[in-house]
Write a structure and sequence with these properties.
The chain has a single domain, classed as Glutaredoxin, CATH 3.40.30.10. 39% of the residues lie in helices and 25% in strands. It contains three helices and four strands; from the N terminus they run βαβαββα. A four-stranded mixed β-sheet has the order 2-1-3-4, with helices on one face. Helix 1 links the parallel strand 1 and strand 2.
């Protein structure tokens, strides 16, 4: 599973990545979590606000730091 954290690398992007890594570890999910700062990639996803999250090429979240429960919902 490939999880992309899309954003400028700001504090909220870092917190989003940390939360996703924590939840995937808790759930025993093997995932490659990658921080993406390339504006062209973000444009391709049509992101207006960051941080945003894409799982296996599908945008699942944008605009704000997701809470742990929201992240768990992505994997149900």
């Amino acid at each position: 599973m490939k999880i992309e954290i899309l954003g400028s690398g700001c504090r909220n992007c870092v917190r989003t990545a940390e939360r996703i890594e924590q939840v995937t570890k808790e759930l025993g999910i093997e995932a490659d979590v990658e921080k993406v700062t390339d504006p062209e990639v973000m444009l391709a996803y049509r992101i207006m606000r960051t941080p945003a999250v894409a799982i296996d090429g599908k945008l699942v979240h944008s605009a704000g730091v997701p809470d742990h429960e929201m992240i768990r919902g992505w994997f149900r």
